[in-house]
Amino acid sequence: MLVAERHVFFTAGPLRLEGQLYLAPGPDAAIITHPHPLYGGEMSNPVVTTLAEVYQRLGYSTLRFNFRGVGASGGDYDDGAGERDDVRAAAAYLIGLGKTVTDLAGYSFGAWVNLGLNPPLASVGRQVLIAPPVVFLDFAPVAAPPAELVALVGDQDRMAPLDRLRTLLPCWHPAARLSVIPGADHFFGTALDRLAAQATEALRRV
What we know:
This protein is of the alpha/beta class. The protein has a single domain (6-204), classed as Rossmann fold (3-Layer(aba) Sandwich), CATH 3.40.50. The chain has helices at residues 46-57, 81-96, 109-115, 162-172, 192-204; strands at residues 6-12, 15-22, 28-33, 61-65, 100-107, 126-130, 148-154, 177-181. The relative contact order is 0.15.
């Protein structure tokens, strides 16, 4: 459980954004971004909290937060542009706490936002894409691939079909890794334990 998280606010320009922060002893930190704000996406989404738990067990500080216009975060939905500013603000907040943002993990819309950062965050060595919705959003070429890119997707996910992902992944990163969760769709449902297990395995690999 996410028992050690605390409710925080940080600024993105004139906006105040709401988040849940866990601070681990070490320097490494992960930002976890949520699904589409216009379709109920928010930081307490079960996939987002599952990812936060995985990272916390691996010794990372974590910050999951509500994009602008979601929950107690100020502002309005901005079609990805403002949301990318939100990610940068989250990174700046963690840097101010003495942490280094090494990982960006995003679920669905969050994966699209993270992958589209241009310029990318210099400290990020790994991006983790959960169910990137390639039939719903336009994933443009990546400005500068991180050192490592990992994608996790269910084999029943109609928003992230495996055949299209296998074509796109090398365009995003020449050595991208794909982990497939059997029986899972875009929302994972009863497959959260399998997602957690495969995410843990993927993130432990060197």
